[in-house]
C-alpha cells in the first residue's frame, strides 16, 4: 500500500499539491486522471522521489520516501518517467539489463541474467534484443522501457503518461501488458492517463485530481460519470454504458 | 569485439612507445632511456588524465561535445596559479617546493570548480547550447582575469606563470612526475570503481534515480576527480584545449558502446597513442617544425565544429 499524508508541494510560490491524503491499495491498476496542471505528474514524481518532499509524508509499505536508502527503494518501486530519453547507443538487451542494477551494482549473477531473459521473453523483445534503441518505433521503445521496469522486479510500478506518442495498437498492447503484470505477477501499477476511456477500460480503480487535490477515488463504473466530467474536467461530455463499462463520447 | 579492439589499441601504443624511446637515438642508452622514459611517462599520464576527465565530464553533462577544457577548467587552473603568484608573490610561489606549489593550485582549483561548475551542473534542465555559451564565457572571463592580474605582476614574477600558460609537449615539467602519477592513479582508481555507477548516471537523471543512484552525489564525485585530473595535465603540459574532445570522439567511433568499462580504457589508449605517436612523428621525423598542440587543436577544433553542426550532442 502507498500511504500519502498531508502532502503539499509548491513550485516557486504556486501551490501544485494541496494537503493530499491518499491510500493506494496493493495490487491492481490504479489510474490517475485529471485536467492539465492538476498535479498528477508531480504527485507521481514525489512518490518516486524524483523531486524532494516539502511537507507531508509518503510511505511505500514500510519504506518512507526521503528517509529510506535509494537502492532499497529501487527494489520496491520503479518509475517510468514521462520522457524516457535514454542513451541512444544502448541496445534493447542492455537497457533491460539495467533493471537489475539495484540488485547487483554492476556484477550480475545467474539470477540476474535469468530475470533479464525472462523480461525479454515476457515482452516479446527477442527479435529486437540487439537493436539500438534509436532504431525502434515509439511503441517498441516504450515496451523495452517497461521490460526494464519488469526486470527491476519491484512490487510497485509508476508510469507517467506512457501512452503519449503511441498509436491505438501500441497503446492497447501496452495497457493489456500492464494489466497482465498486475494480474499474473501481482504488481501494483499506478498510471497517469490522459484518455479517460483507457482508464475506464484497463484500470481497477480511478483517482481523479483537480487543482492539486484528490477529488474522488473508486472503480471506473462509479467514477466516470457525466457529473464528474463536468466538475473535474469542466466539459459536457456524454457517458455511455456498454455493459457496466462507462465510455466517454468524445 | 571490444576486447579485441582494446588489444589492438594497446599494441599500437606499445609500438609508438618503442619508437618514441629508440628512434633517432644518439649517445649512450644509460642517458637516453631515463631522459626519454620520463618524458614518455609524462605524455602517457597527461593522455590518460585528459581522456578520463573528458569521459567523466561528458557523462555527467549528458552530452558528447563538452569537455573540461571547453568549459574553461584549464583556464581556471591558470587563473588560480596567477592568483597565487599575485597574492603570495612570485618569489614565494617559485621558492615553494614544486610539490606544495602543485598541491596548492590543485586544491584551489578543486574548490573553485566545485563552486562554479557544481552550481551550474546542479540545475534541473541542462541545455547544451546554454552550457557551451557558459563555457565560452567562463573561458573568456578566466583568461581576461588572468591577463589582468599578469599585467599587475612584476615582470620577473610573471615568468613563473608564463611557462604554464601554453601547451607544451616537448618541454614538460618532469619534476612533478612522482606526485602527478600518484594523483592520477588515485583518480583513475576512483573512476574505475565508479564505472558501473557512471553507466547508470549516463541514462539521465530520472532513470538513475529510479535505479537507486543519486545523480547529484555522483556528479560531485566526478567533478572532484575531474579537477584532480585537469590539475595534473595542466601542471605537466599546460592547457590542452581540444585534445580531450578529439580522443574521446575517436574512442566512441572505435569502440561504440555506452559501457564505461570499455569506453574509459579505449579513450585512454587512443589519447596515449595520439600524444606519444604524434610527438614521435613531430620530434623525430619532422624535427619539431610544428608543435603537436597546434595540430591536435586544429583537428580537435574541426571535430568540435562537425559535432556541433551535425547536432549529435545527444
Set out the fold topology.
The complex is a heterodimer of chains A (250) and B (314).
Chain A: E1 2-11, E2 14-24, E3 28-33, H1 40-47, E4 55-60, E5 63-64, H2 70-73, E6 77-80, H3 92-98, H4 101-104, H5 110-122, H6 138-151, E7 156-160, H7 168-185, E8 188-192, H8 196-202, E9 205-210, E10 213-218, H9 220-223, H10 226-233, E11 239-242, E12 245-248
Parallel strand pairs in A: 3-8, 3-9, 6-7, 7-8
Antiparallel strand pairs in A: 1-2, 1-4, 4-5, 9-10, 11-12
Chain B: H1 2-22, H2 29-60, H3 73-88, H4 90-95, H5 98-121, H6 128-152, H7 155-162, H8 177-193, H9 195-201, H10 205-210, H11 215-237, H12 243-254, H13 260-285, H14 292-310
Helix pairs in contact in B: 1-2, 1-13, 2-8, 2-11, 2-12, 2-13, 3-5, 3-6, 3-7, 3-11, 5-11, 8-11, 12-13, 12-14
How does this model look, in words?
The complex is a heterodimer of chains A (250) and B (314). Chain A has 250 residues and is an alpha/beta fold. Helix content of chain A is 35%, strand content 28%. The model of chain B has no long low-confidence stretch (mean pLDDT 84). Chain B has helices spanning 2-22, 29-60, 73-88, 90-95, 98-121, 128-152, 155-162, 177-193, 195-201, 205-210, 215-237, 243-254, 260-285, 292-310. The A-B interface holds A 48-50, 69-75, 78-79, 81, 84-90, 94, 98-99, 101-102, 105-107, 149, 152 and B 195-197, 199-200, 202-207, 209-214, 256-258, 314.
Coarse shape of chain A = globular
Portion of residues in helices of chain A? 25-40%
First-to-last CA distance of chain A = 34 Å
> Into which percentage range does the β-strand content of chain B fall?
under 5%
Radius of gyration of chain B: 19 Å
In terms of structural class, how would the helical and strand content of chain B be classed? mainly alpha
Helix content of chain B: over 70%
The pLDDT mean of chain B sits at 84
